[in-house]
Design goal:
There is one protein chain. This protein is mainly α. It has one domain. The chain is built from 6 helices and no strands. Helix 1 crosses helix 3, helix 1 crosses helix 4 and helix 1 packs antiparallel against helix 6.
């Protein structure tokens, strides 16, 4: 009977290990998606940025203000679109900068304060992988240990409650 519990612990540890390895993989795929969105945003705003460079010393806000002050309703409407693209570009740059930090900071950023749309896309398109790098292995080992230890404690407490009391009585 002891070998069954030993195998069960081993299975729990391996399950935790595989789940833990997914954490850096999610962060990696999220970062790649942010980078792809940033490249696209730069391409979409490139023409407007050239205009801002030529007439407003590169100041996109000044270009938007100029559009907003125009007598032409089309230009005023376009100002909203340009501002949206500019704001999105700045948000993506900030997001990518946050993902250039240490592994712990990157992971906590993705878990706690990600761009919700990009995280949703990442999870919908997520492909399970096993990263073989030191960060993924550490996450996997720690997660495996925590899952196995936590469930070991829970089962130990349940064993004490249901089996331990019968022995005392």
């Amino acid at each position: 009977m002891k070998f069954i519990t030993d195998y069960f612990r081993l299975i729990l540890f391996c399950s935790g290990l595989l789940m833990g390895i997914q954490i850096p993989a999610v962060v990696d795929q999220y970062q790649k998606r942010v980078d792809a969105h940033l490249v696209e945003a730069k391409e979409l705003i490139a023409g407007f940025q050239q205009t801002a460079d030529k007439y407003f010393n590169g100041d996109m806000s000044a270009l938007v203000a100029h559009y907003e002050k125009s007598d032409d309703v089309i230009f005023r409407d376009d100002a909203k679109n340009i501002r949206f693209m500019s704001d999105r570009l700045n948000l993506l740059k900030a997001e990518l900068a946050a993902l250039q930090q240490s592994s712990i900071f990157r992971t906590s950023h993705v878990l706690l304060t990600p761009d919700s749309k990009i995280l949703k896309e990442t999870m919908q398109q997520y492909s399970y992988v096993i990263l073989i790098n030191p960060v993924a292995l550490v996450w996997g080992l720690v997660s495996g240990f925590l899952v196995a230890a936590l469930l070991d404690v829970i089962f130990g407490m349940l064993g004490y409650v249901f089996v331990g009391r019968k022995k005392v009585a």
